[in-house]
Amino acid sequence: MKDKILILGGDPNSINSEIICKSWKKLNSSLKRKIFLISNYKLFKKQISKLNMNINLVKVDNVNQKVRNNSLKVIDIKLNFKNPFNVNKKNASEFVLKAFDYAHNLAINKKIKGIINCPIDKRLLKKKNIGVTEFLAEKNKIKKDTEAMLIWNKKLSVCPITTHIKIKDINKKIKKSLIITKISSISKNFRLIFKKKPKIGLLGLNPHNAEMESGSEEKKIILPSIKNLKRKGIKIDGPLVSDTVFISEYKKYDVIVGIYHDQVLSPFKTIFKFDAINITLGLNYLRVSPDHGTAKDLIGKNAANFSSLLKCIQFLDKFSL
Hints:
Layout: E1 5-8, H1 16-24, H2 29-32, E2 35-39, H3 41-50, E3 57-60, E4 72-76, H4 89-108, E5 114-117, H5 132-140, E6 148-152, E7 157-160, H6 170-173, H7 176-194, E8 200-203, H8 217-231, E9 236-240, E10 255-258, H9 261-272, E11 277-281, E12 286-290, H10 307-318
Parallel strand pairs: 1-2, 1-5, 2-4, 3-4, 5-12, 7-10, 8-9, 8-10
Antiparallel strand pairs: 6-7, 6-11, 11-12
Helix pairs in contact: 7-8
């Protein structure tokens, strides 16, 4: 396994250049030598120059090219732009997709330790109702529903069963097979990375777990799924009541699994803020990303919090599959 870490510059209309530069300045020389950035060299240079955040850059052709000093090594991806702070959607999409193709090919062939993609607007992926988690699952050609979006902190992780679907469609999506497949994958891949069998708490769907009424999703779907998972040897409790679990009960678990995205991400971010990263479980390589979006309202203001990206770099330096 190579020790090289690949950072994808992500959405060119974002705070990404700023957080990359700020993170870079916090790294020691040993870690800097492992890092390669996939970006557009001219765009990245113009963006950080505008922010008065210049660092030493060197353009390289591939991850095997050696550089004597600790300059940030940039693999240049072609990108058409007139204004470096306002790249049109078509060019931005082509840029992001090319970067993912390049990174995926290196990762799948074990040429790098893993990839970090900086935030993107998921519409650039050109697929309806799909985020990077599902996008990379398709590229990895893994079994359906075995990918999982784990938001990780040293004290707690959370994971939603469903991701980018509307609230009104959640109860149509929830099936026993989905819950069993997803949580089996979470348990297996958590142990692969962290060398620990996780204790999992699964939330119910409805307020107060619908008082566990006979016709509720909790009674018909969630509870039978939990019983099935326990028979498989997975350490799991539930259904837990979602309006109280994040007061203190969450501290008993390694992973809290929610039925939908905001059910677990909103309280998690309230507790841990930027002290977290997004890990895609189930892929054939490690992929992580900062646990926040493109923050277009902060572009050019030199006010972005870079701590989540820094934690992504530190995570990949420490962990491997």
